[in-house]
């Protein structure tokens, strides 16, 4: 080594000694012409020498076989920057080494040092944080953002001959569990249901918490009959979930939709809207049951013909009608204002033309309008009190 090389090495040595304060960093030196690898200790003294290193790399090396080509290209200077390779730690290829060259500036140096840093712990922590970003913090199943992304990706690339299905699951009267037994118990119910869903469905399926007490299960490569059985089994399994020491029995309502073969172009939003439509039919049918969406064309990703007005809270178009009614009557100071607002919500929610509340007087065989909500462009009805026959009365009541 001439004087110039010694000066360069001295400068590199000072730099490397500073870097070596981190215990996870080591310094190596590869000499291409001699095909020799030197490994230095913390005092920058060579503690190990491996001659014929490229031959050693292909045979007895502790570097993962799939990563050895990267090590070879790195030593030959064909890969710049940082290179990561997996390293055998005595039991498995569990360590990850980050290699970074410290070049001398020559085009083809007779030698060059490089830094080896163990980044296993950092990679493990990064993997943990990435996994947490995908999961719901309470139930530890997929959150709605990542779950939706997975489902959309599958639908975009799925085999046109494969079939799939979606379930939207809602815990019946979940508010009662929170109000009667506390929010900690409510969290326990959510976790118990999430665990049940993970046990009931296959690993290839997507199980996610859509928000609150609502869950979504996306089933890949499933037949229509198998989807029916799964929905039936789920309702029964939730009904049988044990809660020891607490006077509480859980039930659920499930909305289901099925995507047959040769129906490309569907997205998560479309399937969810259809399954969600079926869910609320299940709720209106008395809960503790499942309902299939009768047609995948029921909801399309386009603007509804009659969008809800801005003053209507979007929750009111999805929540249970009875719960919505109680909330409205509790908030409103006037009974008349409350009943008219409730009729408006019901009208928009079920896409009705007209809702009329009438008062009947059976003895006088007369009827009169008390309240009425009208859709856009729909004419009024029963503008003046009228009479009715006995047959009308029997038909109504």
Task: Explain this structure.
With 397 residues, the protein is an alpha+beta fold. The protein is built from twelve helices and 15 strands. It is 39% helix and 23% strand. The protein has a six-stranded antiparallel sheet, with helices on both faces. α6 (174-181) crosses α7 (183-200) and α10 (321-331) packs antiparallel against α11. The longest helix is centred in the middle third of the chain and has 18 residues, at 183-200. The protein is elongated, with a radius of gyration of 34 Å.
Give a topology summary.
Elements: H1 3-19, E1 25-31, E2 36-40, E3 46-51, H2 53-59, H3 68-75, E4 82-87, E5 95-101, E6 112-118, H4 120-134, E7 142-143, H5 144-157, E8 164-171, H6 174-181, H7 183-200, E9 206-211, E10 214-220, H8 224-239, E11 252-259, H9 268-284, E12 290-292, H10 321-331, H11 335-349, E13 354-361, E14 366-374, E15 386-387, H12 390-396
Parallel strand pairs: 7-9, 11-12
Antiparallel strand pairs: 1-2, 1-6, 2-3, 4-5, 5-6, 8-10, 8-11, 9-10, 13-14, 14-15
Helix pairs in contact: 6-7, 7-8, 10-11
Assembly annotation: single chain
Give the radius of gyration. Answer: 34 Å
Q: Average pLDDT, to the nearest integer? A: 81
Structural class: alpha+beta
Number of helical regions? 12
Strand content: 15-25%
Q: How many β strands by DSSP?
A: 15
Report the principal-axis shape: elongated
Secondary-structure element order, N to C: HEEEHHEEEHEHEHHEEHEHEHHEEEH
pLDDT < 50 runs, ≥5 residues: 301-307
